């Protein structure tokens, strides 16, 4: 049961808005470390906590009010120059934002968050009292019950006083009477056992970035975009009317050239409108990636501090837009990559100085739209990756055998980090390096029909690029035929189509291959991959490329390219099939998931590092 | 006692808060409500449209509630408009500041529809005197 029955809508709005606000506060906090005396920044942060507190008060989330109130007071003192900003103070504040974020997660599950940790409150209180001459009334957190009623006479008395005398000095006596019970009522409310107060552990919440909140199910859309959708659907309605009229005419036997030309025109227009509408609808789902990026400066900062490194995370292209579902699914991989860059990528300040680099390292996170793809890059200026070390490591861990390993070039060695169970650090830190990372990252990116690539130069740094389609809703495909049935393969993987000349097929270690422009590519027959009996000799080869392997997919013939909407298959999930779609003539076309198709095949073959070996014994 | 047809302007930078105030007003039967996300937007609306009552948050970017209040009181067209200030602080100096600047009323978050009604009632009482 929800603790907030009847308020779900309001709570949703509050959470959406305050979560953004809190991320913004987090970023401002990171900036504040660089410019501790920036009044505007202090003001903004103050206002952030103040606003969240106000909203939480109305929703009766007293635990959040308590913590925001203290933090807000702290910033009030900071902005008035009553308190200096120290790194200890900063840690306490960052912990507090972490706790508030945790409460958002609890709230989003419809539960009331527990009272904040007594230690944190004590730390906030002592910070508040810390450098003050008089620690009087430092923590007047408003109680959940509307304490507001108490100030009714307050206002009247004061207002009268001001209105008559124009000097505030006349009023204080009257005010003190009212103010006192307010404070009392409040001190009781949180009921914190002071005895339990303990110093806040320094590394309290390093993981909050990883905490996966349930996906948001509301979206905020620019009204201009929504109007566009409305407009286009109206136009489509008009065109439909036109077609209805034309149908009546044609059914009545009017087959004049003019009628048919009008029909042709109307259909062309419908065509145009539908694709415009698809685009417009897609745009309503597009969100700036900045919403995701804004969480990372804090993440990088916390991690760097924990590791004793100096790292600056520079973000560019946050306005780049991406499908909402993709943004959500990108979080975990990106968190991992940012962590990796800070943990493994860049060196400690001492190490950097010794090799003549600036002590502060730079991690860049950028997003950019390139054609119909979004490219996200994480670049660090650290020590880079050592292909030899990676190769040795993979052999040591038994992930690949020595023979395979020696056959890899430098670029392929870098790809080894994507193998399940690979981790370059001997010591497992609590930050990263459990070896669960990169293979999961790649799997997640591939699920989004994306690609991930690594470039690394020793001593200079590493760049990881992720390339993603703009949306998952519409997939450009190549329709091919095998066994007298059409299949669709994602166009993103297709490099070119070649006719298969039987005499060009060469056997390399018993596997059929074709040499295309000096590149030896394995030949895989679609019918065999599907375990179907071939009905004829394949005539065409589709040169396919995925993350690090290229191969030729042999098909009977091909139909052409198409933009399709994938419908997932309910209940059944045949191997290698991502879903189904309808072709123009109304027949069902299976959309193939090449990765799945190939992985299954490789697993059946042998145990280890098949993703690098292109193992393939299928007869052609 | 409160004319339900009065036109209200709710000023707050936090849209959730605007919605809360709107809901509370609705409970009191007041539905003719417009919103503004800060003092600047509010002032523009006040100068171009007719309003009967302003409910404004104190703490906002660009132009705060108190700055809006001063601007409203300084404008010959607007200076008699009832102005209810919302804040999270029950601090004496804040109340004095609001009163000095000419606020008609002062309400501390969080509040209920009943409190809001009572505050508005007081404001209209003093207006009709």
UniProtKB/TrEMBL annotation, chain A:
It comes from the Bacteria. The keyword Phosphoprotein applies. SMART domains: CheW, H-kinase_dim, HATPase_c, HPT. Keywords: Kinase, Phosphoprotein, Transferase, Two-component regulatory system. It is an enzyme of class 2 (transferase). SUPFAM superfamilies: ATPase domain of HSP90 chaperone/DNA topoisomerase II/histidine kinase, CheW-like, Histidine-containing phosphotransfer domain, HPT domain, Homodimeric domain of signal transducing histidine kinase. Pfam families: CheW, H-kinase_dim, HATPase_c, Hpt. Residues 231-472 form the Histidine kinase domain. It catalyses: ATP + protein L-histidine = ADP + protein N-phospho-L-histidine. Residues 474-603 form the CheW-like domain. The modification Phosphohistidine is found at residue 50. Its EC number is 2.7.13.3. Signal peptide: none annotated. Residues 3-107 form the HPt domain. CDD domains: HATPase_CheA-like, HPT. This is histidine kinase.
From TrEMBL, chain B:
Residues 7-124 form the Response regulatory domain. It comes from Vogesella indigofera (Pseudomonas indigofera). InterPro entries: CheY-like_superfamily, Sig_transdc_resp-reg_receiver, ST_Response_Regulator. SUPFAM superfamilies: CheY-like. Signal peptide: none annotated. The keyword Hydrolase does not apply. It comes from the Bacteria. Keywords: Phosphoprotein. This is Chemotaxis response regulator CheY. SMART domains: REC. PANTHER family: TWO-COMPONENT RESPONSE REGULATOR, TWO-COMPONENT RESPONSE REGULATOR ARR22. The modification 4-aspartylphosphate is found at residue 57. Gene3D superfamilies: 3.40.50.2300. GO terms for biological process: phosphorelay signal transduction system.
């Amino acid at each position: 049961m929800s603790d907030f029955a009847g308020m779900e809508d309001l709570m949703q709005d509050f959470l959406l808005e305050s979560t953004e606000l809190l991320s913004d506060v987090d970023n401002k906090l990171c900036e504040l470390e660089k410019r501790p005396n920036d009044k505007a920044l202090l003001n903004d942060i103050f206002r952030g906590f103040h606003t969240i507190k106000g909203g939480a008060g109305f929703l009766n989330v007293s635990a959040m009010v308590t913590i925001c109130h203290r933090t807000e007071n702290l910033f009030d003192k900071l902005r008035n120059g009553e308190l200096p900003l120290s790194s200890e103070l900063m840690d306490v504040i960052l912990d507090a934002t972490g706790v508030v974020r945790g409460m958002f997660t609890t709230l989003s599950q419809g539960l009331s968050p527990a009272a904040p940790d007594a230690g944190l409150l004590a730390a906030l209180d002592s910070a508040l009292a810390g450098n003050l001459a008089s620690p009087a009334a430092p923590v007047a957190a408003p109680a959940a019950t509307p304490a507001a009623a108490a100030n009714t006479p307050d206002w009247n008395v004061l207002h009268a006083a001001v209105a008559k005398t124009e000097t505030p000095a006349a009023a204080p006596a009257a005010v003190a009477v009212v103010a006192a019970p307010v404070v009392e009522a409040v001190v009781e409310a949180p009921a914190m056992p002071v005895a339990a107060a303990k110093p806040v552990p320094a590394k309290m919440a390093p993981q909050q970035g990883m905490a996966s909140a349930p996906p948001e199910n509301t979206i905020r859309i620019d009204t201009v975009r929504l109007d566009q959708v409305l407009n286009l659907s109206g136009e489509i309605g008009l065109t439909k009317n036109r077609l209805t009229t034309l149908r009546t005419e044609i059914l009545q036997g009017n087959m004049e050239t003019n009628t048919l030309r009008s029909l042709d025109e109307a259909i062309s227009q419908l065509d145009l409108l539908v694709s415009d509408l698809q685009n417009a609808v897609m745009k309503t789902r597009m969100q700036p990636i900045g919403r995701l990026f804004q969480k990372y400066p804090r993440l990088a900062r916390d991690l760097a501090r924990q590791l004793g490194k100096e790292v600056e995370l520079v973000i560019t292209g946050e306005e780049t837009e991406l499908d909402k579902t993709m943004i959500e699914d990108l979080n975990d991989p990106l968190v991992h990559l940012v962590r990796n860059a800070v943990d493994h990528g860049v060196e400690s300040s001492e190490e950097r100085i010794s090799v003549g680099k600036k002590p502060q390292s730079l991690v860049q996170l950028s997003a950019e739209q390139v054609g119909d793809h979004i490219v996200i890059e994480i670049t660090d200026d650290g020590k880079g990756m050592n292909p030899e070390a990676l190769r040795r490591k993979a052999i040591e861990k038994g992930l690949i055998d020595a023979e395979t390993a020696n056959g890899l070039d430098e670029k392929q060695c870098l790809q080894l980090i994507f193998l399940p169970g690979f981790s370059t650090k001997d010591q497992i830190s609590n930050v990263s390096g459990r070896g669960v990372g990169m293979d999961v990252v790649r799997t997640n990116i591939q699920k989004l029909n994306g690609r991930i690539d690594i470039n690394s130069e020793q001593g200079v740094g590493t760049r990881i690029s992720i390339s993603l389609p703009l949306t998952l809703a519409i997939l450009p495909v190549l329709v091919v035929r095998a066994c007298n049935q059409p299949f669709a393969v994602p166009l993103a993987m297709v490099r070119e189509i070649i006719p298969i000349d039987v005499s060009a097929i060469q056997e390399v270690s018993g596997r059929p291959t074709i040499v295309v422009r000096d590149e030896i590519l394995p030949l895989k027959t679609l019918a065999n991959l599907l375990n179907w009996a071939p009905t004829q000799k394949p005539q065409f080869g589709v040169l396919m490329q995925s993350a690090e392997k290229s191969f030729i997919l042999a098909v009977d013939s091909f139909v052409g390219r198409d933009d399709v909407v994938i419908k997932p298959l309910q209940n059944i999930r045949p191997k290698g099939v991502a879903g189904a779609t309808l072709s123009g003539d109304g027949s069902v076309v299976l959309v193939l998931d090449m990765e799945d198709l190939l992985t299954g095949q490789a697993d059946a073959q042998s145990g280890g590092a098949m993703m690098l070996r292109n193992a393939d014994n299928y007869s052609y | 006692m409160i004319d339900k047809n009065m036109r209200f302007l709710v000023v707050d930078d936090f849209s959730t808060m605007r919605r809360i105030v709107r809901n509370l007003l609705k409970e009191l039967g007041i539905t003719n409500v417009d919103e503004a996300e800060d003092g600047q937007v509010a002032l523009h609306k006040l100068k171009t449209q007719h309003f009967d009552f302003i409910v404004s948050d104190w703490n906002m970017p660009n132009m705060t509630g108190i700055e809006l209040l001063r601007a409203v009181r300084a404008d010959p067209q607007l200076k008699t408009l009832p102005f209810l200030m919302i804040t999270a602080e029950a601090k004496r100096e804040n109340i004095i500041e609001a009163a000095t600047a000419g606020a008609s009323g002062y309400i501390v978050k969080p509040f209920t529809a009943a409190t809001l009604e009572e505050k508005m009632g007081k404001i209209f009482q003093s207006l009709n005197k």
